[in-house]
Amino acid sequence: MNQLLEVNDLVTSFRTAEGKLSAVRGVSFSVDKGETLCIVGESGCGKSITTLSVMGLLPSNGEISRGSIQFSGEELTTKNEEELRKLRGNEISMIFQEPMTALNPVFTIGYQLREPLMIHKRLSKREATQKAITLLDQVGIPHPVSKLKQFPHELSGGMRQRVMIAMALACNPSLLIADEPTTALDVTIQAQILDLIDDLKADLGMGVVMVTHDMGVVAEVADRVMVMYAGEVVEVGTVTEIFEAPKHPYTRGLLASVPNIDDPDHSMEAIPGSLPNLSEEIQGCRFHPRCPFAMDKCMEMEPPLFELSSEHQSKCWLQEVKHYDKQSATSS
């Protein structure tokens, strides 16, 4: 069985003063061993909440209201905190977006790197220290021995991010979830980190879920791409299908807003408007207030996720005619 992670109809809600609000609305996706799935979309579209739901690391006012999360055939939504803790950092690791809040400020880098190795891999302190030095060297940190004695506040933002990546990769996880892993890094180190993740994916058969807004990173590392908008999946496809034949107007808008140095005539276009508030109920397609192709039907009925090919789906009424034409041709 190649499937590593399967998320089905995930709904994640938050208790607020305005009542219960859903940040993730019926999201479904899967990740195979050795595959990289990139989740893209604007800030606030539910990408990070989706991954935190998988990790069981939601804030205290958050909860999974509905859905299934299966990792290697095991249901994660029914596991208690102790059972999840055994998986986290060992079988499933996460690179967080904000390393200063993810790293403990009162412990040295060495202590925080050794801890998962001693707990999950049963290494001695000496063995864990040697492994920690190797990991820091792998992620491009100079003078790794001296860095073990330093505290997070003594490192730059880019250095802290590399420490987070080293911690996530320490136990050779089966699934790596990376939330904007290269945001704080310069382009040279960014390329090194992406190559390192790619090498480990190849060597270990590791599955990768990468959250990013950088379409350049997506083009470089993704096997498949999942586009999210307002807590929903609006398009899924292979990296080739998404870049060469995007079907959802939102996906087209994201790609149009990226500069293209190979095309001097390319003009960047911003998507008008902004994401709806979580408390804002929108009838029909949630993207229709910002969509240049919106029809009356878009404002009245929520579109299904149309199957365009075995790996390409788009949640847009523009695909309805093509979908039914394809169905008719298949049945005749």
Can you tell me about this structure?
The protein is globular. The chain is 36% helix and 23% strand. An 8-stranded mixed β-sheet has the order 6-7-8-3-9-10-12-11, sandwiched between helices. Strands 2-1-4-5 form a 4-stranded antiparallel β-sheet. It contains 13 helices and 12 strands. The chain has 2 domains: 3-91 and 175-192 and 200-284, P-loop containing nucleotide triphosphate hydrolases (Rossmann fold), CATH 3.40.50.300; 101-172, no CATH class. It is found in: Cell membrane. InterPro entries: AAA+_ATPase, ABC_Ni/Peptide_Import, ABC_transporter-like_ATP-bd, ABC_transporter-like_CS, Oligopep_ABC_C, P-loop_NTPase.
Give me a quick take on this structure:
This is Peptide ABC transporter ATP-binding protein. The protein has 13 helices and twelve strands.
CATH class of the largest domain: Alpha Beta
CATH topology of the largest domain: Rossmann fold
DSSP strand tally: 12
Helix content percent band: 25-40%
Count of structural domains: 2
Numbering strands along the chain, what is their spatial order in the largest sheet?
A: 6-7-8-3-9-10-12-11
Shape designation: globular
Q: Spell out the CATH superfamily of the largest domain.
A: P-loop containing nucleotide triphosphate hydrolases
CATH architectural type of the largest domain: 3-Layer(aba) Sandwich
Protein name: Peptide ABC transporter ATP-binding protein
Membrane topology: Peripheral membrane protein
Main location: membrane
Family: Belongs to the ABC transporter superfamily.
